[in-house]
Amino acid sequence: MTSTDYTPDSLDRRIIAHLRADGRASLSTLSDTLGVARGTVQKRLERLLETGTVMGFTVRVRQDYEHDTVQAVMMIEVTGKSTTQVIRKLKTLPEIYSLHTTNGNWDLVANIRVASLADFDRVLREVRMIDGVANSETSLLLSSV
What we know:
The protein is of the alpha+beta class.
């Protein structure tokens, strides 16, 4: 079964919501919180992973933990029908930690995280050199409010 064959129901969505808040929650904690058997949570979580609905677990850190990093949002315009090719190339850049398609004047939005302004400059040049990237606009994130 693939993610296109499987539609999460309300219990699956509740499991996902709790895991978003606490990705380390145990099966027992989830079953107690959701009011279902531990085995049910385990089977549901296995299915969510198998179908690709849940792709993995990650660590969220405090905003100030990465205070020495340079973060930016880059809007990208793609020429013609090269969006898939551009996305594939952008996903190879480890400094791009999230990438989104969008509507409006820009085709893609990339969130960039680097260690220095020199690295930031390099990433900007790399993105702009990708075949199919017509234009971009980037804003540095200065502080969180």
